[in-house]
Give the backbone structure.
Amino acid sequence: MLAASPIFLVLVKSGIEDISYFIQNINYVGAQGGDLQKIFNELLNWYSLFPNKILALLVVILVTFLNYKKSDLYSWSLLLLPILAYDYSAKLDIQQSLKFINNYIVFFPLLFLLHFRDKVVRKLFILIFIPSLFAGLTFIWSSSNGFYAAGLGFFPASLALSYIIVHLIHNRKTAIQSKQWLSILLPSIIIVLLIFMQNSVYRDEPIKELTAKVEFGPYKGLYTTKEKRDFLQTFSTDILSFSKHKSIFFYSHIPGGYLFSTSKPAGNTLWVFTYTKDFSVYSDYFYDYPKPEVVFRMKFMIAEDFLPITYQKDNVLNQFINNQYNIIHSNQYYDVLIENK
């Protein structure tokens, strides 16, 4: 409560309208999220996407049996767990590494049940797996990516699971040389799988196609496709030509535009797909407060590709912009508008 008091004082001073606008922004997280039903649905999705289900079940039975028999093969059987977590039939994409982590940590409870008397296993389960599980479920609830985003929360658990496997191998009564080889093999398998999965980049083309280096702006030094590099150059040049204006507004789906400009942002600078279906939160705000002096209206959303944006006739924000602004520059990527005088 004390930590939040400075924010509360600032909001009270700014006025009830700004408080309402602030709450609308905060509520967007819930709009992306859902309820317990969403978590349940995403867990079902997780199960449906889990690769090699029958084989995984057989390996779980095998691991349990070999541990019960205290067989020397038990240590080798543990190496099958990361191998089974990888979906070899799926198309390579950026989500593969997250799916791998999600699938891999499924085996954590198994090893906990088999070795709950082991102090190291118990500590890692309580201190890392359980918090990581809650973090993953939070991502499932709060992110529109659901199941895939859960891998970000589960990542600490995947590291702890790998450590447990190496720990169990070292504590097994097998030859020292075998322990060394097995301990090296596990991280090697995971590293190879992860490298194999990094062919893709989030919201861009595969790495081999990212050959154009960005030489300017906030993304300077990054590599992308030639088409996107050319877009960024045009985008940056046009924004700089309107730098004399005091405020600027970008829509839709390009909050990164504010990084190119020194003008005051007139819109949300976070990645937000939509507040309402017609973006009326913006038009309502602009009716009551100073309107942006210059507007960039995007014709494409920049993701893996250039995805065309269609503005519906009932889009209140677009109607507001059309009524209050004139187009002074246009290209294949966006329109630039300034306020009617």
